[in-house]
C-alpha cells in the first residue's frame, strides 16, 4: 500500500489513539513517541529540541532493556517508531551506526508473534509499510537491510489481506465488490512479493560481483529468468482485471482497489527498470537488448505520477529510477520537476536527498557523454557512496 501523504502516514486519529494507549503502560514506547515528536520539530527548523530528541531516544532504549514482560504489540510499535526515527537521522547525516537495521531485525522477529487473525488496520498497515521500507533499503544497496523482507519471503502468511480487513469492518452489500477487490489484491500482492524478491536478488548479485563469484553470463541468465516469471505472472493477473473492467464498471467504485492498482502499476514499472539497469555495477553496458522496454516503463512512471497527487511518499523512488534510466532529456527534466514538487513530502525530507543525488547523477552522466565511457556506466548505488549520500529511504 502507499506509504502516506505529506508529513504523516496513512493512519487515522483512531489508529494514533491506539498507539498512544499502548504507551501509557509501556514507558519505552512513550519515550520513543516523544523522541520522534521532538525530532520532527528539529527537522521543521526548531533546533532547540535536538537534545530532547536524543534524550528520549536513549531513555526508550535503556528502559526497554529487561522488559521481557512486554506485549509483542507494544514492542512492535516501539521498534517501528524507533526505525522511523533512525531513518530520519540517516537522512540528516546524523551518525546512527546502522541502528535502523537493528530495529528491522527486531521487527522481523516480532512479526511472527503477532496473530494474523487479531490484527487491526493500523498493525496491518504498519506491517506492509515496514516491508516496503526494508525492500527499498535493500534496493538502495544496503547490505544490512533485508531482515523483514527475508522473513516475508520465508513465511508471507503473516501479512494480512487488505481486502479481508476492509470487508471485515464495513457493511458491504455486494459480493461482487469483494470479488473485484480480491482480484486487484492478488495482483498487488504478486507485485509486492516480486519487489521483495528483486531486492534480495540485487543484494546477492552485488555481493557476488564484488567477490568475483559469478560471471556476466550467469548474472544475465538469472535476470532473464526473473524477467520471464515477472512478465508472465503480471500478464496473467492483469489480463483478468482488463477483462472484468470491460464488463463491470463497478470495479472502480471501491477506492481501495483503485489505489492498490495504481500502486501495483508503479511497482511493476519500477521493478522492470531496476531489473535491467541496477542489479550490479556495469550492468547498463549490456542494456541494449532491453533499451526500448526500459524506455517504455520510464515513460509509464512519469505518466502515472503526473496523474496522481504528488503528496504521496511512495512516488519518489519510481521517479528517481525513471530519471536515472531514461535517455530522454525531456523526461529527465520532467522527473526532476516532479520530484521538486514533492520537496515537502515526508518527515525526514528524504525526497530532497534523493533529488540532490539525482542531480549529481545527471551531472556525472553528462560529463561522461561523448567520452569512451558510455553515459550508462554510472552505477547510481556505487555513485551515492562516492559522493557521501547514504540512501536508506527515498521519501520518508
From TrEMBL:
A Gene Ontology BP annotation from the UniProt entry: positive regulation of transcription by RNA polymerase II
GO-annotated cellular components: nucleus
Any Pfam family the entry gives: Fungal_trans_2
Keyword entries, A-Z: Nucleus
GO molecular function: DNA-binding transcription factor activity; transcription cis-regulatory region binding
Location(s), subcellular: Nucleus
Protein's recorded name: Transcription factor domain-containing protein
Amino acid at each position: 500500500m502507499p506509504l502516506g501523504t505529506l508529513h504523516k502516514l496513512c493512519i487515522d486519529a483512531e489508529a494514533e489513539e491506539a498507539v498512544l494507549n499502548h504507551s501509557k503502560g509501556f514507558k519505552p514506547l512513550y519515550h520513543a513517541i516523544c523522541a520522534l515528536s521532538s525530532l520532527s520539530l528539529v527537522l521543521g527548523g526548531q533546533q532547540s529540541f535536538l537534545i530532547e530528541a536524543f534524550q528520549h531516544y536513549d531513555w526508550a532504549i535503556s528502559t526497554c532493556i529487561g522488559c521481557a514482560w512486554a506485549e509483542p504489540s507494544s514492542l512492535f510499535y516501539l521498534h517501528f517508531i524507533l526505525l522511523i526515527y533512525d531513518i530520519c537521522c540517516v537522512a540528516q547525516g546524523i551518525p546512527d551506526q546502522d541502528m535502523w537495521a537493528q530495529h528491522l531485525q527486531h521487527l522481523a522477529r516480532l512479526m511472527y508473534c503477532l496473530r494474523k487473525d487479531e490484527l487491526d488496520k493500523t498493525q496491518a498497515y504498519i506491517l506492509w509499510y515496514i516491508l516496503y521500507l526494508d525492500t527499498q533499503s535493500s534496493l538502495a544497496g544496503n547490505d544490512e537491510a533485508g531482515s523483514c523482507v527475508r522473513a516475508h519471503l520465508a513465511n508471507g502468511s503473516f501479512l494480512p489481506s487488505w481486502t479481508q480487513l476492509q470487508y471485515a469492518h464495513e457493511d458491504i452489500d455486494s459480493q461482487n465488490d469483494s470479488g473485484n477487490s480480491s482480484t486487484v489484491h492478488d495482483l498487488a500482492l504478486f507485485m509486492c512479493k516480486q519487489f521483495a524478491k528483486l531486492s534480495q536478488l540485487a543484494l546477492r548479485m552485488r555481493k557476488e560481483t564484488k567477490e568475483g563469484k559469478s560471471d556476466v553470463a550467469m548474472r544475465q541468465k538469472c535476470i532473464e529468468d526473473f524477467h520471464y516469471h515477472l512478465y508472465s505472472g503480471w500478464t496473467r493477473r492483469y489480463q483478468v482485471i482488463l477483462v472484468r473492467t470491460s464488463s463491470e464498471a463497478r470495479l472502480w467504485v471501491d477506492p481501495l482497489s483503485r489505489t492498490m492498482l495504481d500502486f501495483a502499476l508503479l511497482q511493476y514499472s519500477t521493478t522492470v527498470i531496476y531489473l535491467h539497469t541496477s542489479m550490479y555495477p556495469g550492468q547498463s553496458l549490456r542494456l541494449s537488448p532491453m533499451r526500448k522496454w526500459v524506455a517504455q516503463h520510464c515513460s509509464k512512471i512519469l505518466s502515472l505520477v503526473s496523474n496522481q497527487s504528488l503528496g504521496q511518499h511512495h512516488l519518489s523512488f519510481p521517479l528517481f529510477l525513471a530519471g536515472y534510466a531514461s535517455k530522454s532529456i525531456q523526461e529527465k527534466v520532467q522527473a526532476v520537476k516532479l520530484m521538486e514538487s514533492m520537496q515537502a513530502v515526508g518527515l525526514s525530507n528524504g525526497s530532497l536527498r534523493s533529488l540532490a543525488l539525482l542531480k549529481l547523477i545527471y551531472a556525472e552522466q553528462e560529463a561522461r557523454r561523448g567520452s569512451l565511457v558510455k553515459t550508462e556506466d554510472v552505477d547510481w548505488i556505487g555513485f551515492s557512496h562516492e559522493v557521501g549520500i547514504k540512501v536508506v529511504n527515498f521519501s520518508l
